[in-house]
Specification:
This protein is an alpha/beta fold. It has helices at residues 16-27, 39-51, 68-81, 105-115, 117-133, 156-177, 213-220, 231-244, 256-268, 278-283, and strands spanning 7-11, 31-36, 58-62, 87-90, 137-142, 181-187, 248-250. A seven-stranded parallel β-sheet has the order 3-2-1-4-5-6-7, sandwiched between helices. The chain binds 1,4-dihydronicotinamide adenine dinucleotide and ligand GGE.
């Protein structure tokens, strides 16, 4: 699809990867709605675009992607102010990692609510409008290479959510294609961002009873490495993926061997197929009364 003249709604669009995608979509002629839980990030992003005389092409909305009512209101506001969206980027996410033995239900609920249910909520609230407008479009979901690569228990909650985002994107592809809406799942390696501030972004209702408080404080001290990729470089990859309706976008080849090993072991575990018409057995009523 063409990007010029289209509206893009980007969750977590005021920092890091989302902000990099925002900059490159704007540079290619899109109008932006940036939705973010952090008002300070939104104010900073707004100022960035105003300084470049692009303020009229950027609208900001405070949103927690785990709040379905807020997501519904954000969809209405986007349509009213900027039209569309034609492009939905479900990118907002946090790092909910910590010693697995210390994880509580609060940590699981938090990690899944933001990193997996966030994209699901985005699709549930935005896809019907995108379909109804009949203009086609594109949906980008930010997962991670951590959703494909075998991960340590420290990252279990994150990896579960990101594997879900990959499967979510793959499994809605045919349905969205019926309405000329393409899908992309982004699987980044290390990118310069403020993901180490995740502790500040944990919604109030997920705070009490977390086992990861110490870990969040340690994470907050981590410094961004020069070797990590620039978010605008990721933005350029997403511009190409939207134009060409590319399903998978990986930013780094560094975990290829680990992913290959995983899939080789999976293939090796599968016996030779015996003739069996599975779809025919699904089609017949199983319990006649
Ligand atoms: P970031 O922290 O710089 O940007 C994320 C933005 O999302 C922030 O502005 C934050 O305020 C916002 N946000 C957090 N929780 C939110 C919520 N509940 N509702 C709405 N907005 C919320 O971090 P980064 O790294 O740019 O993260 C973006 C996505 O990229 C995440 O899904 C992350 O898991 C993913 N990712 C990041 C990688 C990296 O190396 N930075 C690598 C692979 C994936
Ligand atoms: C840069 O910060 C992070 C983070 O705090 C959590 C997760 C990630 C980045 C990413 O999603 C990736 C790194 O690119 O996750 C991994 C983390 C550790 C080892 C391997 C990873 O992915 C293959």
């Amino acid at each position: 699809m063409d990007i010029a003249g289209k509206t893009a709604f980007i969750t977590g669009g005021a920092s890091g990867i989302g902000f990099g995608i925002a900059q490159r979509l704007l540079a290619n002629g899109a109008r932006l709605v940036l939705a973010d839980i952090r008002q300070d990030h939104l104010d900073e992003a707004r100022q960035f675009f105003e300084e470049r005389q692009e303020g009229r092409n950027v609208h900001t909305i405070r949103l927690d992607v785990s709040d379905r009512a807020m997501m519904r209101e954000a969809a209405k506001e986007c349509e009213a102010v900027m039209g569309g969206p034609d492009i939905l980027v479900n990118n907002a996410g946090i790092d909910p990692s910590g010693p697995f033995e210390q994880a509580t239900y609060q940590d699981w609920d938090y990690g899944i609510a933001i990193n997996l249910m966030g994209p699901i909520n985005g699709i549930m609230e935005f896809a019907p409008g995108m379909r109804a407008r009949g203009r086609g479009g594109h949906i980008v979901n930010t997962a991670s290479l951590a959703g494909l690569t075998p991960m340590p228990s420290f990252m279990a909650i994150y990896a579960v959510a990101k594997a879900g985002v990959i499967t979510l994107t793959e499994s809605i592809r045919d349905s969205m294609a019926q309405d000329n809406i393409g899908v992309t799942v982004l699987m980044p390696g290390p990118i310069k961002s403020r993901i180490h501030e995740s502790g500040q972004n944990r919604p109030e209702r997920f705070r009490d009873g977390s086992g990861f408080r110490k870990n969040e404080e340690q994470l907050a001290q981590r410094v961004v490495a020069d070797s990590w990729m620039e978010p605008t470089e990721v933005g350029d990859m997403i511009v190409d993926a939207i134009r060409n309706n590319t399903l998978y976008v990986s930013t780094h080849g560094n975990w290829k061997d680990a992913v290959e090993q995983r899939f080789r072991a999976l293939m090796d575990s599968m016996p030779e197929a015996k003739p069996f018409d599975f779809s025919a057995t699904l089609a017949v009523p199983r319990k006649p009364d």
